[in-house]
């Protein structure tokens, strides 16, 4: 038997052992555990505000931690910071590249970042001395597109890239602090744990990985999806991870049990999940699909309890505010809407 | 648009998220008037846009090295044209479908089921369950008559609670009831919907209500405002 063949067999056998170990500790299913929980009932949300100003499809949006401001990135090559209460544009930042895939608001509210096909993460200072918003840093080192970025603080940011790696950057010096390598496919999304010690990444190798930010190591890997993992989010208590994939399903993985607890799927759903956001309590999961539809799932019972923006599919990205009071959707027709 | 064969009611894959951006960029490059993209590379873009089923090796990398080389500073005018084109296309795609002129009266529970299940999957179906003796039902019926003319792509229907065969479910407390369906799925369910309105209400009130839930199509394509190059301004 050739060496490659032997190694392959060994890898397979190890995978089987992991699966067996996971099964061995599984003493119940989420369905059973949640059987006594009351149903949520139909969720129908109303548009409270419409944010107008972009000129093309909204690619990404992110709420600030004050749950009032949010930033959106659009195909029109602009980053706009909105006051969601008054619907005013606080800042309109022109970008060098229109092909922006992600944007992020720093927890402090001082910085925003974005990136895309330019392979770079550009950091903008919103609180510059003379009131103008300027590029503060351009973090360039990735050899692939920048699919997602999230701030840890005003001095650190994590990015995920189409080059299969994630990087922790020192914003002051513009250098890489840590490179998280291990995925076998483009990294599509990342989310930081509520305690800022870990982050998770979803990739086109059908898996998601939990990384220790400081150590730089991959702590856990969650296989199970049958296609690319496009979207990922932490369950609000930090103990579980929700993933959305091109295989049309979302899955809930528990970190301590190290395995999948439940899959959110429906035979009528025929396209991939590309964005997701849990509600503040975690009871609801808003999942955005590639056909611009948003399904609202009951996280415990794995049932669809509603749709967002039902009439025609427009939603290209979603985000739930930190205080859980509203969700924001960006659409292909250039508008953002605030719902609850 | 010259792109690969697309059925009228099927969206090509990957419209949202980072892959959506990649595909939009590819389409822009393929359709752009700028012919500086050499033939070989155009072929590459075409191939990447339509991955073959058997192409497993490349499946977990979404962009090829050659494609990265093609990314460069884009022609702004070409981009503006492309964005407008994208939105126009989406609007056209969504307004495709049968058109209706007035509110349809459903005679029975079976007719109700049929209209929900058999309509074109892009058509929104709004059903009003009414009772003849309830005043707000009468008001709602006239409102819907107006809306039916203003929204020809939406199929408005009404059915007498008794005709549904489930009259006990639709007592006077819950009518008028408005149910909204699309492609066989219940999108909106509003029992005693008149409690959301004041005693006298009109078509615009019902329209505003449905719009709040995102349940009505845009009436006309709101063309993008002419570009304001407002770099960093504050309102």
UniProtKB/TrEMBL annotation, chain A:
Keywords: Coiled coil, Repeat, Transducer, WD repeat. CDD domains: WD40 (cd00200). GO terms for biological process: signal transduction. It comes from Austrofundulus limnaeus (Annual killifish). PROSITE patterns: WD_REPEATS_1 (PS00678), WD_REPEATS_2 (PS50082), WD_REPEATS_REGION (PS50294). Belongs to the WD repeat G protein beta family. WD repeats lie at residues 51-92, 139-179, 180-221, 222-263, 308-340. The keyword Cytoplasm does not apply. Residues 1-31 form a coiled coil. The gene is LOC106521057. The keyword Cell membrane does not apply. This is Guanine nucleotide-binding protein G(I)/G(S)/G(T) subunit beta-3-like. SMART domains: WD40 (SM00320).
From TrEMBL, chain B:
Residues 40-60 have a biased composition (Basic and acidic residues). Keywords: Cell projection, Cilium, Cytoplasm, Nucleus, Phosphoprotein, Sensory transduction, Vision. It is found in: Cell projection, Cilium, Photoreceptor outer segment; Cytoplasm, Cytosol; Nucleus; Photoreceptor inner segment. Residues 6-222 form the Phosducin domain. GO terms for cellular component: cytosol; nucleus; photoreceptor inner segment; photoreceptor outer segment. Residues 1-11 have a biased composition (Acidic residues). GO terms for biological process: regulation of G protein-coupled receptor signaling pathway; visual perception. Its main location: other. It comes from the Eukaryota. The keyword Nucleus applies. Residues 1-67 are annotated as: Disordered. PANTHER family: PHOSDUCIN (PTHR46052:SF3), PHOSDUCIN-LIKE PROTEIN (PTHR46052). Belongs to the phosducin family. This is Phosducin.
């Amino acid at each position: 038997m050739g060496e490659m063949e032997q190694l392959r067999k060994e890898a397979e056998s190890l995978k089987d052992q992991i699966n067996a170990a996971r099964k061995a500790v599984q003493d119940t299913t989420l369905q059973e555990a949640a059987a006594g929980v009351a149903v949520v009932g139909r969720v129908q949300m109303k548009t409270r505000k419409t944010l107008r100003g972009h000129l093309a499809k909204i690619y990404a949006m992110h709420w600030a931690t004050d749950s009032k401001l949010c930033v959106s990135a659009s195909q029109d090559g602009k980053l706009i910071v909105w006051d969601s209460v008054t619907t005013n544009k606080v800042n309109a930042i022109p970008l060098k590249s229109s092909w922006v895939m992600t944007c992020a608001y720093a927890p402090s509210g001082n910085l925003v970042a974005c990136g895309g096909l330019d392979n770079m993460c550009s950091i903008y200072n919103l609180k510059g001395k003379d009131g103008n918003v300027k590029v503060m840093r351009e973090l360039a080192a990735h050899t692939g597109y920048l699919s997602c970025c999230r701030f840890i603080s005003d001095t650190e940011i994590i990015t995920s890239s189409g080059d299969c790696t994630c990087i922790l950057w020192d914003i002051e010096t513009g250098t890489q602090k840590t490179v998280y390598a291990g995925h076998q496919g483009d990294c599509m999304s990342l989310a930081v744990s509520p305690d800022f010690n870990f982050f998770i990444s979803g990739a086109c190798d059908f898996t998601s990985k939990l990384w220790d930010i400081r150590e730089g190591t991959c702590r856990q890997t969650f296989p199970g999806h049958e296609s690319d993992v496009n979207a990922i989010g932490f369950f609000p208590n930090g103990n579980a991870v929700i993933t959305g994939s091109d295989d049309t399903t979302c899955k809930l993985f528990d970190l301590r049990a190290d395995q999948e607890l439940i899959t959110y799927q429906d035979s009528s759903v025929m396209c991939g999940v590309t964005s997701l956001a849990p509600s503040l309590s975690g009871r609801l999961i808003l999942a955005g699909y590639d056909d611009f539809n948003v399904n609202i799932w009951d996280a415990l019972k794995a049932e669809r309890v509603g749709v967002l923006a039902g009439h025609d599919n427009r939603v290209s990205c979603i985000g739930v505010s930190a205080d859980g009071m509203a969700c924001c959707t960006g659409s292909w027709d250039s508008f953002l809407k605030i719902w609850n | 648009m010259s792109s690969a064969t697309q059925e009228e009611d099927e969206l090509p894959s990957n419209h949202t998220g980072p892959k959506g951006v990649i595909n939009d960029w590819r389409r822009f490059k393929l359709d752009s008037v700028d012919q500086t993209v050499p033939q070989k590379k155009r072929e590459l873009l075409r191939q990447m846009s339509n991955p073959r089923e058997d192409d497993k090796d490349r499946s977990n990398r979404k962009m090829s090295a050659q494609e990265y080389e093609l990314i460069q500073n884009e022609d702004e005018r070409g981009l503006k044209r492309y964005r407008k084109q994208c939105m126009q296309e989406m609007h056209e795609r969504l307004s495709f479908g049968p058109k209706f002129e007035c509110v349809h009266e459903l005679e029975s529970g079976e007719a109700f089921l049929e209209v929900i299940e058999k309509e074109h999957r892009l058509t929104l179906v709004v059903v009003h369950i009414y009772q003849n003796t309830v005043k707000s039902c009468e008001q709602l019926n006239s409102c819907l008559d107006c809306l039916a003319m203003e929204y020809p792509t939406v199929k408005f229907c009404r059915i007498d609670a008794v005709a549904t065969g489930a009259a006990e479910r639709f007592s006077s407390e819950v009518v008028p009831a408005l149910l909204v369906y699309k492609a066989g799925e219940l999108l909106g369910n509003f029992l005693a919907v008149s409690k959301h309105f004041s005693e006298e209400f009109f078509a615009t009130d019902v329209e505003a209500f449905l719009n709040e839930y995102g349940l009505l199509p845009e009436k006309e394509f709101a063309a993008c405002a002419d570009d304001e190059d407002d770099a960093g301004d504050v309102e």
